[in-house]
Design a protein that fits this description.
Elements (H helix, E strand, L loop, with lengths): L1 E12 L6 E12 L5 E7 L2 E3 L21 E8 L42
Antiparallel strand pairs: 1-2, 1-5, 2-3, 3-4
C-alpha cells in the first residue's frame, strides 16, 4: 500500500570541480505485507536508485564523479480519496483531455537551479 507520495528536489555539489545542480525526483513510500516500509524513486518516469546513496547519485556533467545528494525541498502529493477533495469523473469514452497522451513529459532537471537567495 502506498503511504506517501512526494516530489523531492535534491541538490548535488561535486566535491571535485564544485559544480552544483539539482534534480526533482518523484518518491513513493510503500508499506509491504510484512510491515516494512520502502521508498521508490523515479526520475523522468523511470525507476532509479536513491539519490541519497553513491550508487544512485547522477554523475557530474563536468567531471563525471558522483556525490550524494541532499534534500533541499519537497512537495507532498495528496493520496487519492482524501475526504472533501474535489474530484471529476472521467468519461468512459476516453475523450477526456486527449492531449494528455501526447503532452511532453516534464523533465526532472528542467527547472531553474536553486540559488542561495531561493534556498
Amino acid at each position: 500500500m502506498i503511504t506517501e507520495l512526494a516530489v523531492e528536489r535534491v541538490e548535488f555539489t561535486c566535491g571535485s570541480c564544485w559544480h552544483r545542480w539539482s534534480v526533482d525526483y518523484d518518491v513513493q513510500r510503500y508499506l509491504d505485507g510484512h510491515g516494512d516500509e520502502w521508498e521508490y524513486f523515479y526520475r523522468d518516469n523511470t525507476a532509479v536508485p536513491s539519490p541519497y546513496t553513491p550508487q544512485g547519485a547522477p554523475p557530474c556533467e563536468h567531471c563525471g564523479r558522483r556525490w550524494v545528494g541532499r534534500l533541499v525541498a519537497r512537495r507532498p502529493v495528496p493520496l487519492p480519496g482524501t475526504a472533501g477533495a474535489p474530484r471529476s469523473r472521467v468519461p468512459t469514452e476516453g475523450s477526456h483531455r486527449p492531449e494528455r497522451h501526447t503532452a511532453p513529459l516534464l523533465e526532472a532537471g528542467g527547472h531553474p537551479q536553486p540559488t542561495p537567495e531561493t534556498r
